[in-house]
Amino acid sequence: xxxxxxxxxxxxxxxSMAQILLEIQRIWPDVRFxxxxxxxxxxxxxxxxxxxGGNGDATLNSVTGIVLNAGGYSHTSVALRDAVEESEVPVxxxxxxxxxxxxxxxxxxxxxxxxxxxxxxxxxxxxxxAVEHIIAAAGC
Length: 140
Fold this sequence. Notes:
Rossmann fold; 3-stranded parallel sheet
């Protein structure tokens, strides 16, 4: 995600994550968003667990939902799947491209069945859709 807007713009678009976050913040100015990015699988797992209060008790934290673009880890990481599965905080998965229309190995999504919702192939608008889903589900 740190290469968004630079890597394969014909597939992932030309907007940077900073631009996408600005758009989201403009739409929901009263909502607090926290953005975290890492190329390390363990960091992603740690952050999901932190959003659940560190011990699976979501009441210890004020996180309403998680928008997750796990990139290639969606296709390979059983450990990340386990963290999402045990999350009491709803996780909405975003794939910018249509993974089902790409290489066969990308057709496998280990996270889809443990996420509250999955958005595939809507470009960077998928992030806004994910936030809308979380807000609607929370009744905000």
